[in-house]
Amino acid sequence: MRDIYTTENRKDMVFSDNLRRCNMSRIGRLPVEIPAGVEVTVAENNVVTVKGPKGTLTESLPVEMDIKVENNQVVVTRPNDLKKMKSLHGLTRTLVANMVTGVTKGYEKVLEINGVGYRAQKQGKKLILSLGYSHPVEMEDPEGLESVLDGQNKITIKGIDKQKVGQYAAEIREKRKPEPYKGKGIKYADEVIRRKVGKTGKK
């Protein structure tokens, strides 16, 4: 019975892996539309620069891929159908699309602070968090990113680089992860905290 279970699990894992690669491959074939007001250039070694209304992003993308700008589109092609190339194909196309979105619309990540006395405030580029410790936690907005407060318990991280926005939000959340009993701490606005029932004292 154990062997059958293991075999079925392996089949599921192989199927999921193949499906993921197939999806990445399909994504890679889709051209990225270049909106009006956006300029995309591809330099040596696939260094891609995207300029738009909100700023400029430069990224070194996989050199195995062929990246061309034609007819107001960015087209990514792969050299062969090896598994690695299929994955890189989809990844490269996704990164280019993220850059275009970043310089036109930008990205943001919203955090919520829960807990009595827990709050945030801004002093210039400095984010000051009161999280129940003996002293406030101070963080400075990285270059190209901005933390915006809505009241004292809601923080929105804004920027044009999707990865950096997500990273900074994760670092802020790390300062006081939400605990599972009362939900105190910092969580993403769309995050659902699985609550645990607190232990009752002995009678």
Automatic annotation (TrEMBL):
Database matches in InterPro entries: Ribosomal_uL6-like, Ribosomal_uL6-like_a/b-dom_sf, Ribosomal_uL6_a/b-dom, Ribosomal_uL6_bac-type, Ribosomal_uL6_CS
PROSITE patterns the record matches: RIBOSOMAL_L6_1
Stretches assigned to the Large ribosomal subunit protein uL6 alpha-beta domain: 34-106, 115-188
Keyword annotations from UniProtKB, A to Z: Ribonucleoprotein, Ribosomal protein, RNA-binding, rRNA-binding
GO BP terms in the entry: cytoplasmic translation
One MF annotation (Gene Ontology) recorded for this entry: rRNA binding
Origin superkingdom: Bacteria
Any one annotated GO CC term: cytosolic large ribosomal subunit
Purpose: This protein binds to the 23S rRNA, and is important in its secondary structure. It is located near the subunit interface in the base of the L7/L12 stalk, and near the tRNA binding site of the peptidyltransferase center.
HAMAP family xref list: Ribosomal_uL6_B
Similarity field: Belongs to the universal ribosomal protein uL6 family.
Subunit comment: Part of the 50S ribosomal subunit.
Entry protein name: Large ribosomal subunit protein uL6
Organism for this UniProt entry: Anaerobutyricum hallii DSM 3353
This protein's encoding gene: rplF
